[in-house]
Amino acid sequence: MASPTLQWPPDITESEAETLTLLATTYALSHGLVYLPVASIQPPAPTSSIHAPLSLFPSPIPRNQFEKARRLQNTYNVLYARVATDVEFLDRVMGEEQGVGQVDEFTGQLWRQWKRLRSREAGIVQKLHLGLFRSDYMVHAPQSTGDVSLKQVEFNTISSSFGTLSQRSAQMHRYLHSSTGYFGSSPYLKSENFPPNSTTSGLAEGLAAAHRAYGVPESRILFVVQPNERNVFDQRFLEYELLEKHSIHVIRQTFDELAISAEVDPQTHVLRIRPQSKQLADSPSAVEISTVYFRAGYTPTDYPTPAHYDIRGLLESSRAIQCPSIPLQLAGGKKVQEELTKPGVLEHFLCSTTHAKVFTAEDLADIRSTWMEMWSLDQGGDEGVSRAREHSANLVLKPQREGGGNNVYKDAIPAFLDSLPEKERAAWIAMRLIAAPKGLGNYLVRAGGTGGAVKTNVISELGIFGWALFGGDDGSVDEKEVGWLVRTKGEDSNEGGVAAGFSVLDSVVLV
Ligand code: ADP
Ligand code: MG
Ligand code: MG
Fold first, then answer.
1. Interacting residues of 17 by C-beta distance below 8 A, sequence separation 6+
2. Which N-terminal residues, if any, form the signal peptide (predicted)?
3. In 391-463, where does DSSP find H-type helix?
4. What span, in angstroms and rounded, lies between the C-alpha atoms of 103 and 116?
5. What are phi and psi of 25, to 5 degrees?
6. 240: Cβ–Cβ under 8 A, 6 or more apart, which residues?
7. Which numbered atom of ligand 1 lies nearest the CA of 406?
8. String of DSSP letters for 182-225
9. What is the mean pLDDT of the chain?
10. CA–CA separation, 24 and 21 (whole Å)
11. Would residue 112 be called left, alpha or beta, if left means φ above 0 and alpha means ψ between -120 and 50 degrees?
12. Assembly ipTM
């Protein structure tokens, strides 16, 4: 890292760790850095919460790399907006006739819904798309070169979570610092090294921008949510911000509820939702929706029947702005991430003079500097697979899925390749493993466990949030970088994913 002698976490005594744990968990519980507990019986409304898993110390990120990642978010916002509006590219890469949709049922289902709407007489009636993005990185510090840089893990275009909770975990570390000075344990722990983080207002601004663009002030924003979601507070803070700062009302519904409550006017294509009675006591009639924000729909289990894909298609068929639209969700596929690394593809999206803004060679070089090598398993006959076998010790294989727990790592790769039908190769990419710095640790605290903080070696993942509103006739992209997230996991776990229970919420100390 910045200094080869950086020792993390700094030395503290056992009783200091206990003090920090008490201050951290009480701060978390009193400031909404919380989850719903795993409930065996679901009461009509929640009666308790538990603190989110958290780290006692923020994690070190080199200042220049952190600033670069935030800067690059503006380019990434535009890049993914352009991918989502390049129909020919998405058909080729993700479609059912030529791309991943042929072999991956989930991708195929989404693509077919989109294709059907494009082909109908009315076509796509809402040109605008909204993206709330999170670009994820890890520090890459290969011992062979001594270089330190951030490399992109993935780019999320749907249900990018932990925005509002990450603001709270940053505030918690700031509080631990103001309250205890971290017992003078490290010269890095000073206030100018704790970067600000205002994801809540930033993400809500993106949703409010779409709502304004829709142009019907009294319409509402629909949050499409999963039943039994435990990470509800992360979503609710956006809801409160929309109401308090923008006077915009939100309705939350699951796909199953929408199956009964959603209707699209055949003439005007206005989407209307009948609220559940408990949601809107004052307004039993259907309300117009300006923007559909998906915190569900990113994984096949959200669509247990074909009818669930039809509900997604119904929402997409309307005038409401989709966050994300189906093409924007497809643009976030791992296969697209890999395709972007092929020669000329980035130039196609960022340097064409047909675009409203043309990027420089330096911008492109900066973007490319964040990539690890990737290739497709169906590349060049058997070549993609044999290369994956050869390099398996330094690889991860990824399918077209989100939400963690889907990848195949290192030693597990050869046997996996033996069992993978040839036809399914096209659904997978191979990616070089990012070499996270060795020897960094932290104290991790989980609610309910054995109690207390566990000191362990860790790997951290930095996410940068951004939004983009795009698709209008002038080809411009209204976009912003709006904050960050750090998730930290024990060194020996391959996967990240706070929701999946493998990692904790953390924050940044710049070094
Ligand atoms: P998902 O969309 O399911 O979150 P990711 O691409 O983020 O998929 O992969 C899940 C996790 O796997 C990441 O959070 C990270 O911990 C690990 N991972 C993914 N790609 C790499 C990589 N190239 N090097 C090291 N770890 C990786
Ligand atoms: Mg993802
Ligand atoms: Mg991820």
1. 56, 443, 452, 453, 455
2. none
3. 412-419
4. 19
5. -70, -35
6. none
7. 3
8. GGG--TT-SGGGS----HHHHHHHHHHHHHHHHT-TT-EEEEE-
9. 94
10. 5
11. alpha
12. 0.99
The SS3 call for residue 480 is strand
Assigned CATH topology for domain 373-433: Dna Ligase; domain 1 (3.30.1490)
Beta bridge partners of 441: 457
DSSP code at position 235: H
Domain limits, CATH 3.30.1490.50, in the chain: 373-433
Q: Which tens digits make up the pLDDT trace of 241-250?
A: 999 999 999 9
Ligand nearest the Cα atom of residue 461: 1
| Binding annotation for Mg(2+) | 154, 156, 402
Give residue 235's pLDDT: 98
> What is the full DSSP assignment across 305-353?
SHHHHHHHHHHHTSSSEEET-HHHHHHTSHHHHHHTTSTTHHHHHHS-T
pLDDT in tens, 387-409: 999 999 999 999 999 988 899 99
Partners of 128 in the β-ladder? none
Give the count of alpha carbons within 13 A of 292, CB side only: 32
As a three-state string, the secondary structure of 129-181 is EEEEEEEEEEEECCCCCCCCEEEEEEEECCCCCCHHHHHHHHHHHHHHHHHHH
- Asked if omega into 9 is within 30° of 0 (cis), the reply is yes
Binding residues: 134, 154, 156, 158-161, 229-231, 235, 295-298, 334, 398-407, 409, 431-434, 461, 487, 489, 495, 498-499
Strand-strand pairing, 429-432 and 395-398 = antiparallel
Bridge partners (DSSP) of residue 481 are 466
Distance in Å, CA 238 to ligand 2 centroid:
20
Which tokens hold the place of 218? 């009294």
Q: How confident is the model at residue 1 (pLDDT cuts 50, 70, 90)?
A: low
Whole-prediction pTM: 0.96
Tell me the C-alpha distance between 63 and 81, whole Å.
28
Nearest residue (by CA) to ligand 1, atom 20, is: 153
CA distances from residue 229 to 161, 265, 384 in whole angstroms, order as listed: 12, 30, 38
- Give me ligand 2 centre to Cα 282, in Å: 38
Location of structure tokens 């294989």: 397
The residues annotated with a catalytic role in the active site are: 134, 154, 156, 161, 334, 398, 402-403, 487
Number of H helices, E strands in the chain: 15, 21
- For 257-269, the pLDDT digits (tens) are 999 999 999 999 9
Q: How far is CA 108 from the centre of its chain?
A: 22
Question: Which ligand is in closest contact with the Cα of 406?
Answer: 1
CA distances from 347 to 331, 344, 502 (A): 17, 5, 37
CA gap 403, 160 in Å, rounded: 9
Residue closest via CA to ligand 1's atom 11 equals 495
| Angle at CA of residue 276, ends 275 and 280, nearest 5° | 65
